[in-house]
Amino acid sequence: MKIRILAIFIIMVLPACGILIAKDPAWSDDLPKYAYFFNEYQRDSINTNVQTLEQYLTWVQRFYNGWELYPSGWNSIKQDLLLRINDPALAGEVNNKMDDLGLSISSEWAKNNDTRVINIAYVRSFRKLTANGIKI
Fold it and tell me: Is the pLDDT of residue 6 over 60?
């Protein structure tokens, strides 16, 4: 009986082990889930042939946190926008929409220059819109 239970357990649990994605130890908690970007990277076979996962994830981190050449990352853009909203309900909606938009932009922007559709000019334009053009 114990062997039968063990066999059933192994049959049910072992396949799940193959789908677990280990989190990169350098992945910061202020970034969206690592698994999302891992899956997005895997889905684009053209990009995976020209860019390593490490390179892709580095650019995701730069998108959200900024870096030496462009210090205002998405987290900063979002925070600056949210600070100008007085209504907590509206701030919550904007926060969720900015999170969704950040996922869409960053997963494309982090790709190799030759394969991506969104580039730094788009991100800079959005920064200007949120800083100057959007009144909430």
Answer: no
